[in-house]
Design goal:
The protein is mostly helical and 89 residues long. Helix content is 88%, strand content 0%. It has four helices and no strands. Helix 2 packs antiparallel against helix 3. The protein starts with a helix and ends with a helix.
């Protein structure tokens, strides 16, 4: 019985810490934006710059989830929104 309780608590803990990351728009939108940049007809040098910015923004976003740093989270989403605005999405 104790093992079952421990497993249930561990499962609940995992869901609690991974749930917010899955629900965050950046988790899905960074990869989508990278795909849109790759498919766009923008010049190759701009594509490269946008791809690098998205890579850095996504890394910042992931770290913000790990540390709970909402200021860093906001900054990462501003990077994402800026690029989406520039490619017309």
């Amino acid at each position: 019985m104790r093992t079952m309780t421990a497993l249930l608590l561990a499962g609940a803990f995992i869901v609690a810490i991974t749930g917010p990351a899955r629900a965050c728009r950046g988790t899905a939108e960074f990869p989508q934006a990278a795909g849109e940049v790759a498919q766009s007809k923008i010049p190759p040098e701009r594509k490269k710059a946008f791809t690098e910015q998205l890579r850095q923004g996504e890394a910042m976003h992931t770290q913000a989830h790990r540390t709970g740093d909402m200021m860093k989270m906001g900054e990462s989403l501003r990077i994402l929104d800026g690029i989406l605005g520039q490619i017309g999405k």
